[in-house]
Design a protein that fits this description.
The protein is an all-alpha fold. The chain is built from six helices and no strands.
Length: about 140
């Protein structure tokens, strides 16, 4: 397979990390990006909510009384996963030194727990975002 160079805009720190990496490590990064981009290109164009609603509607049409509960459970799991990914993107990957929990990771866990309790209490949208910002400030996680 022939290789074609492609330019992807990234932040300065990511570019620096790539350009200072060893040639072997660069190859690993390239292979991982290639695989991940192929995966993303093959994803369905419908949103996840649309796909889940379609599955739920088909289950209801077949008379499955559990479908509503399953749909709510799947949405909750996906919501938790997405909030985890938001935390990962905002605070980076956890890095443990000497078996200790890094201070930033502990704060991230506290924030994630706060978000879960707020969602369980029915907060969403702008109210949830404001509550998260207040909690981030309380934890000293402001930019």
């Amino acid at each position: 397979m022939t290789k074609v160079a492609s330019s992807i805009p990234v932040d300065a720190e990511t570019a620096r990390a790539y350009h200072t990496a060893s040639p072997d490590y660069r190859k690993k990064i390239q292979v991982l990006l290639q695989l991940r981009l192929r995966e993303l290109a093959e994803l369905p164009t419908r949103s996840l909510a649309e796909i889940m609603d379609d599955i739920g509607a088909r289950a209801e049409a077949r008379g499955s009384w559990e479908c509503t509960m399953i749909r709510k459970t799947v949405r909750a799991v996906i919501s938790i996963f997405l909030w985890f990914m938001v935390g990962f993107l905002l605070f980076g990957a956890p890095v443990a030194v000497g078996g200790e929990t890094p201070h930033g990771e502990a704060k991230g866990r506290k924030l994630a727990e706060f978000i879960r309790t707020q969602q369980a209490a029915g907060h969403k949208g702008e109210a949830l975002a404001e509550a998260i910002n207040r909690e981030r400030a309380r934890l000293g996680m402001t930019d």
